[in-house]
Amino acid sequence: MDIKKIAMVGAGSMGGMMSLLFAELGTEVVVYDPSDENVKALMKKAKDTGLEHQLSSEKDYEALCKALPSPKIFFFSLPHGSVGDKTVNSLKPFLKSGDFIFDASNEHYASTERRQKICEPLGVNFIGSGVSGGYQSARHGPSMSPGGNKEAVEKMLPFLRKAAAKDAQGRPCVAWMGEGGAGHYVKMVHNGIEQGMMSALCETWGIMTQCLGMKYEEIAEIFEEWDTKGELTKSFLVSIGSDICRTKDPKNNSYVLDQVKDKVVQDVDETEGTGTWTIEEGSRLHVSIPTITAAHMFRLSSADADQRIHVHKSLEGHIKVGKIEVPDKKAFIEDLRKATYAAFLMSFVQGLDLLEHINQEKKWNLDFSSIISIWRGGCIIQSDHISDLLSKVFEHHKHIRGNLLTVHEVGHELLKCYPALKNVVLKAIEADAHIPSLSASWSYFRYSGDVDLPTQFMEAELDYFGNHMFDLKGAGAGKPVTGTHHFEWHPARGISEEHR
Fold it and tell me: Which residue in the list 187, 231, 281, 356 is annotated as catalytic?
């Protein structure tokens, strides 16, 4: 399918940048956005970059549809939720069989599947796709994870490959993920992994600044070194971390980082829903994702700065982050690197475990090698060593099911980092530093591979008051199903019986 002209519904930061990318690649783009400001800002950027002849705008859906050739191709870049439903309903009177809607928003996979069912009787191809990498990648080439009808996606793929990010070997970071809402689900998990990685790195940065008293420039140099060699090679978040630590405001030559309030609000104000959905899905599918969950809860607590101030006053400021004294600073920074890498890798392990569970439920037949391949460029969780490791794992263990810690290569990779992670967690706790995701990663690694957990006591208490049943120790591992044994720890008695 030769795509020469498309519509972009939504001209905000992501939709606007994708419009310029498509225009630069020679595609005509007709834009619709109810915000005149968004459209004007986009048209100015188009003019500034010499692309004004490739972009135009329309004021309503009917005019937008009339401006397109057949089959009509629409890209959505919208807030998640009801806006997408309203947009589909507004377009319906003007849609014809064979038209395409490519939803590039951060949307919940269930909403995507609902809209696919609405469009299917009309013969309209509704593709739900993650678009990763933020507005910078949207401008020069994002990672994309389209899902939906395979034949429809394959018709779009030649166009998408031109626009997608390219990995180090020049391969486009886009592939069909699976039927239904698979594309948006993969993007949701990407963002969950992202939250775990971001939290681990910010906790490491906090230890460096607050506990070791390191200056921004020194941290920038270390992050730069981490990004160029070792297990964190070409990790996007580490790379931009170095830039952030160095960037100064030209107005006063002060570090921009010093001006940034310690509150992450994107989950609370619901401009971003993927992190919340990841936690919900982990709970629904009974998948342990503690690194990601701890990161999310950290963000939620950070968002309410006013409440934190009141709690601080209530505690009279008694607990403060202290200093970490180490005999060999260079060796401890190496431990920090390994601990950060371990938390990064465990974020991937947990996210991929969640994907495997939804894969079993929905029968999507996800290709995990393809998923890793689209995360090699143009996305926030790009981390070359981890991608290399996991690509080999999925190549050699094509039929693996379940937690990747069961794979020797992954488990032993983390085992090598375990002493460093443990040391960092212990030192950080002694200093009252903030390490929710690092400590959750340590705990996850410990209990995931232990065959004698104290949870037998918890199971006994559940049986004591709830008759919840239990398995016997000598009966083998068993499946995660209700046990077959109950012990009458304390027989239930009526009021009159209590006095006998």
Answer: 187
**Which entry of 194, 203, 281, 356 is annotated as an active-site residue?**
194
> 28 near 5, Cβ under 8 Å?
yes
Other beta carbons within 10 Å of 388: 13
> Catalytic: 37?
no
**pLDDT for 271:** 84
pLDDT digits (tens, 9 = 90+) for 434-458: 999 999 999 999 999 999 999 999 9
Q: Are 164 and 378 in contact (CB under 8 A)?
A: yes
User: What is the pLDDT, as a whole number, of residue 397?
Assistant: 84
Quick check: is 5 catalytic?
Answer: no
